[in-house]
């Protein structure tokens, strides 16, 4: 499992840049009509979560590449950041699976999916953002 976790030099400047893009993506999501484009919103929320986790890895001096890289990021978060409990990790992984179905299988989520998951998605994003902010300071 370790072969897809690559040691790199931590890069705060790059982390700040990715964090800025995360904030822009969150602004963009607010503009998307959730009744027309719920699958796109689900994908974008997952991308925000994934990017935040990638910032954490970057600041810790790691990156993941290749097949299974996203899953490996989640496993890294679970192993190294105990403030994220099992249900939060499972929720992030469920988002990953849903995003993969959308991206690779043409799966469509309904608006009700976004409505049901929104509070949890936002809570996870805020928790990840706090972790990133603490590491950047």
Q: Biggest sheet: strands, sense, closure?
A: 2 strands, antiparallel
**H and E order:** EHHEHHH
Write the CATH architecture name.
Answer: Up-down Bundle
Integer tally of domains: 1
* Percentage of residues in helical conformation: over 70%
Structural class per helix/strand content?
A: mainly alpha
Query: Which value, in Å, is the CA radius of gyration?
Result: 15 Å
The CATH topology turns out to be Four Helix Bundle (Hemerythrin (Met), subunit A)
* CATH superfamily membership: Nucleotidyltransferases  domain 2
Q: What's the average pLDDT?
A: 95
Task: State the helix count.
Answer: 5
Assembly state of the chains shown: single chain
N/C terminus separation: 30 Å
Low-confidence stretches: none
The number of strands is 2
CATH class: Mainly Alpha
- Largest sheet, spatial ordering of strands: 1-2
Taken from the alpha-carbon principal axes, the silhouette is globular
- Beta fraction: under 5%
